[in-house]
Design goal:
The structure holds two protein chains of two kinds. Chain A is built from four helices and no strands. Chain A is mainly alpha-helical. Chain B has a single domain, classed as Cytochrome c-like domain (Cytochrome Bc1 Complex, Chain D, domain 2, Orthogonal Bundle), CATH 1.10.760.10. The chains are: A mainly alpha, B mainly alpha. At the A-B interface, α4 of A face α2, α7 and α8 of B.
């Protein structure tokens, strides 16, 4: 009975440990790559004068997540930043000849 | 019939292109005004110098009450002292008094648009003032106070911005015009979206002021800026509420979630050039109190 109890406890501990440290889909290189891509796209948006206000903050958060080993989070944040800058560049292209809508 | 339709379509397209090509600062100004006169019939040109208070009687009453004991008065006095201390008057025509109506202007030598604050800064530097040590920077504080004193001394003068024959002057004007009408930021708003098409409507409890006449009352004294500065310093700062028009541009950009440009960057200089030209003929009445 004592052996069974010990086995159940060990199994519970093992499963608990698995549950508390979920495996990550992305690794460190993925995170670094995503951040670099976001930085590159944001530099392009800045060059055309259309950088959005919070994109830089997202990249900083992604870098923090990378430092803390949270690679999935870092990739998610970096991708969001990249998407923002892609939209900002599109916005610049659409608005390059903006004028009044008076009539 | 088909040929006729094609001809008509082609002619209308050509007409459209020709109209765009023919847009000049003068026609822009005419169309800009016509838009506001149609949107707010009964509001006269000079009333636009009062911003949102030209559109709402209750708010105007409250604003006029504030103007009886203006919170910027002490700041203007400090601005006058700084103006004298740094010998600013010697850098400007007429001793720097009654001249703000000609700003911003296109400088033929440098081929740049220069606004009042840029010329004040150049003057301070030429006079050997250590601006860093004195804590003078664009947008607020002592700079805005000197500018406010000069605005105060230009009250009643009609704005008279000139777009010169120099192609670079027209280019700067057109650059500012595009900026004014271009949507930007995560919220995808242009200056015109708020201050033309939505002027007179409410945004988070604030009445959106018309773009026409906005430049007449800067630098402004904003109660929100004053409160923020006082809270930060833990005491009342008589210059805390002052801010220049370019500081406001940066604030507007932030509000639509666009990254603002540096103050006195060519981008904001060109915007100020276009924006002020649209208010030519409206009397200066700055500094003015705003929420």
């Amino acid at each position: 009975m004592k052996k069974i109890t010990l086995l159940v406890a060990a199994a519970a501990l093992f499963l608990g440990a698995c549950a508390s440290t979920p495996s990550q889909t992305h690794n460190k290189n993925d995170a670094i790559g995503a951040i670099t891509a976001a930085e590159h796209q944001t530099a392009r948006a800045k060059n055309v004068g259309y950088e959005w206000r919070d994109t830089g903050k997202l990249i900083k958060k992604a870098q923090e997540a990378l430092k803390n080993g949270q690679y999935d989070e870092a990739v998610k944040l970096a991708n969001e930043a990249k998407q923002q800058s892609t939209l900002a560049i599109q916005q610049q292209q659409q608005q390059a000849n903006a004028g009044p809508r008076i009539n | 019939m088909k040929k006729f339709l094609i001809t008509i379509t082609a002619l209308s397209m050509l007409g459209g292109i020709a109209m765009t090509a023919q847009a000049t600062p003068q026609t822009d100004l005419k169309d800009f005004r016509a838009f506001f006169f149609k949107k707010f019939p009964g509001v006269k040109l000079q009333d636009y110098g009062n911003g949102a208070y030209a559109l709402d009687a209750d708010r105007r009453f409250e604003w006029e009450a504030m103007e009886e004991f203006p919170p910027y008065e002490e700041g203007v006095e400090i601005g006058e002292k700084l103006f004298t201390k740094y010998n600013v008057g010697k850098c400007f025509k007429n001793g720097g008094l009654g001249i703000k109506q000609n700003y911003p202007y296109f400088d033929q030598k440098t081929k740049q648009v220069r606004d009042l604050e840029r010329d004040i800064m150049a003057c301070l530097e030429n006079n050997g003032v250590d601006v860093k040590a004195e804590g003078i920077k664009y947008g607020k504080g002592k700079m805005a106070a000197i500018s406010a004193f000069m605005a105060y001394n230009s009250r009643g003068k009609k704005q008279n911005v000139v777009i010169s024959n120099d192609p670079a002057s027209l280019e700067a004007y057109n650059d500012g015009k595009i900026f004014f009408y271009a949507k930007r930021g995560q919220l995808n708003f242009s200056c015109a979206d708020c201050h033309m098409y939505s002027a007179g409507m409410l945004a988070r409890g604030n009445l959106l002021s018309p773009a026409l006449g906005q430049t007449s009352h800067f630098p402004v004294w904003r109660r929100s800026w004053s409160k923020k500065t006082d809270a930060k310093k833990g005491k009342h700062d008589p210059l805390g509420g002052f801010g220049t028009i370019q500081k406001r541009y940066a604030g507007c950009n932030k509000q639509v979630r666009a990254k603002p440009f540096k103050l006195q960057s060519p981008t904001y200089d060109h915007l100020e050039y276009f924006h002020t030209y649209m208010s030519n003929g409206i009397m200066l009445n700055g500094p003015a109190v705003r929420h």
